Amino acid sequence: MYLYFLFAEIIQPINCILISEDTPSISIVLSERRSNSLKGKLLILNNEKGNFYTHKPTNQRPASWSFEKGNFVFKGEAILLKDGKVWNRYQNSIKSHEVNRVLFSGLSTKLAKVTNESELLKGTSGFFKIGNECYGGRTKKV
Predict the structure, then answer these.
(1) Residue 65: burial class (beta carbons within 10 Å; 0-12, 13-18, 19+)
(2) Tens of pLDDT along 110-123?
(3) Which of 83, 102, 103, 128 has the least CB density, counted as fewest CB within 10 Å?
(4) What is the DSSP letter of 136?
(5) Which residues contact 32 (CB under 8 A, 6 or more apart)?
(6) Phi and psi dihedrals of 94, rounded to 5?
(7) What is the number of other CB atoms lying within 10 angstroms of the CB of residue 71?
(8) Are 76 and 62 spatial neighbours (Cβ–Cβ below 8 Å)?
């Protein structure tokens, strides 16, 4: 019983959808909130390409992403923006829940090591629109 509560505390559901601005058929659906990340799937339409994680920034590292498919694991920095302004944890003009775009630095280049799908590579090379339900990775209170 104790393990169930511990598990429920660490993994919580979320429905955060990120859509490629260049190729709207490419999306990242983040569905699990973990202690230091959000976990989901990278998709072309409904075709799953692998597990995708976003990691919140810490004092030692910026916001980041990771992708897993089989034995391949790729990582990089996530650059968060509100409209055209870059967000970082040390400024106070943009709140974390206000970010509405993200660039996953190096994602397309690293995916090119395991795929030659031009649609996927194009869609992951640019910005993603952050859905309204993401709210900076927190539960949106209604």
Answers:
(1) buried
(2) 999 999 999 999 99
(3) 83
(4) G
(5) 11, 12, 13, 14, 38, 39, 40
(6) -125, 125
(7) 6
(8) no
Which residues lie below 8 Å from residue 99, measured CB to CB, with a gap of 6+? 80, 81, 82, 87, 130, 136
Contacts of 9 (CB under 8 A, 6+ apart): none
Give residue 135's region: left, alpha or beta (phi > 0; psi -120 to 50): left
pLDDT of residue 89: 82
Write down the pTM of the prediction. Answer: 0.86
